[in-house]
Amino acid sequence: MLDRRRFLQLACAFAVSHSVASRAQPLARPRFATNPFALGVASGYPRPDGMVLWTRLLGDFQPATIGVRWELANDENFRKVLSQGSIPASPDWAHSVHVEPRGLEPDRWYWYRFHAGDASSPVGRTRTAPAAAAAVSRLRFAFASCQQYEQGWYTAHRHLAADDLDLVAFLGDYIYESSWGREHVRKHEGGEPYTLEAYRARYALYKSDPDLQKSHAAFPWLVTWDDHEVDNDYAADRPEDGMPRERFLARRAAAYRAYYEHMPLPASMRPSGPDMRIYTRLDWGRLASFFVFDDRQYRAPQVCPSRPGGSTVVDPAVCTEINDPARSLLGAEQEAWLERALADSQAGWNILAQQTLMARLDRKLGEERRFWTDGWDGYPTARRRLLDFLRDNRTANPVVIGGDVHMNWVADLKSDFDDARSPVVASEFCGTSISSQGPSQKMVDALLRENPHMKYGRSDRRGYVRMSIAGARLHADLVGLETVKKPDSPLDVLARFVVEDGRPGPQAI
Ligand SMILES: [Fe+2]
Asked: Do both 213 and 353 map to the same domain?
């Protein structure tokens, strides 16, 4: 507890040194040398009566607080402004603005924009969710993850922005802390971030991309993080490189704060030092509920590491700790929350929006087994607890969506992957990456033969997954670009699957 107390002392010192700026009167008539809205706009977390609207002012006006006006209308020309207000953008929060209008109509589209001085933001489009008890006939959404900036253009976001969707779920690795991979099309500025300033600069670089801005401006987003928003393979308070715990928690606090500053998150998720609760539930009338997980902040450390921390591939017959039932990927509190939330759910479809691949993936051909310890394969007892709960709770149409592995996988989820007769309890769709490179298709083809519950595997295309729920079925299009190395690549549908109401398991169509 000592290092936590010292951490809080440091955090207080930081807050005091900035209080003069935050008490200052906002500049009423700021003058900007460059466009202060260069990072675009975003919205998120649609509820029946409101949502979160976001922007961040960028420019050389530290440390002034700037007054920002916002407007929300039911047409893109703002003929009738329904809701408006002013909010100070303070340097304490990197001049980010999070507005939560309330009292809106359910199940409607809205348009929003911001003004500061004589500058105006681009117009964003957003919507409210249907009313809680509403019988909703259709939901369309896309999910995506993993956008290493150097490895490819964000053309997938440009296509996604042109789709007919209600919302987007982004499932982690929004930024990457490190520079890696082949054939870079552009470069990170600066080295690996450790400080708040450095994480802010990394987010500003990623969010300067016009295709990513289009995707945010087109739909409300739900977001969760994975490891690269902080550091590769970190587990709760343990980094992969052996950095002392107190220093790592200061790094995590900087990274979490910068995440909050750059995402359309509600004020209820604002971080406190190194802690930030982002797991949540979001309902779409009675048609569907999303359960958004955090698989990083509370997890047990990866087993049998070959470095001070982080992941490896292990033989479970040798690394037997992997089967310790006390190990959790979500942490006891989040697991209990999830079980309560699933037990309460009245939704016809229950979407588990989380970071990584849930189905077992044996990575060694033949009799022997090898499992990667960073994903659910490193937490097999926790996975079984969740899948057994879905079965025993009779959760309606559970569908797991994920990312992380830079490959598409479509799978049957079962309590016992060794038993061919073990019933399928849920359907899984793991998405490819927006730009981060994947492993070889040859390896994936071999793994498909080794893992019969895997119905589809594809590693050579970058893109996203589009889903619609209507007429007692969920339809999934796995879409991929020809290449992310050129900026104007066309998009193909790589595969189509359906899940029928009451029948777990994806079916190819
Ligand atoms: Fe990734």
From this structure: yes
Q: What is the SS3 assignment for 95-118? A: CEEEECCCCCCCCCEEEEEEEECC
Q: Check: CB of residue 11 under 8 Å from CB of residue 273.
A: yes
123 with 164, same domain: the answer is no
Average pLDDT, the chain: 94
Secondary structure in 3-state letters for 232-293 = CCCECCECCCCCCHHHHHHHHHHHHHHHHHHCCCCHHHCCECCECCCCEEEEECCCEEEEEC
User: Is the pLDDT reported for residue 12 higher than 60?
Assistant: no
Q: How far is the CA of 147 from the centre of ligand 1 (A)?
A: 7
What is the per-residue pLDDT across 242-293, written as a single tens digit (0 to 9) for each? 999 999 999 999 999 999 999 999 999 999 999 999 999 999 999 999 999 9
Ligand 1 center–CA 436 separation, angstroms? 6
CATH number at residue 37: 2.60.40.380
Are residues 85 and 151 both part of a single domain? no
The parent domain of residue 58 ranges over 2-127
* Same domain flag for 164 and 22: no
CA of 6 to the centre of ligand 1 (A): 33
The whole-angstrom separation of Cα 410 and Cα 465 is: 11
Distance 405 CA to ligand 1 centre (A): 6
Distance (angstroms) between ligand 1 centre and the Cα of 394 equals 32
| pLDDT single digits (tens) 54-69 | 999 999 877 899 999 9
> Which token pair is 272?
């406190």
CA distance 191 to 241: 16
pLDDT tens digits for 175-210? 999 999 999 999 999 999 999 999 999 999 999 999
User: Would 506 be classed as within a structural domain?
Assistant: no
Read off the CATH number of the domain in which 466 is found. 3.60.21.70
Number of independent structural domains in the chain: 2
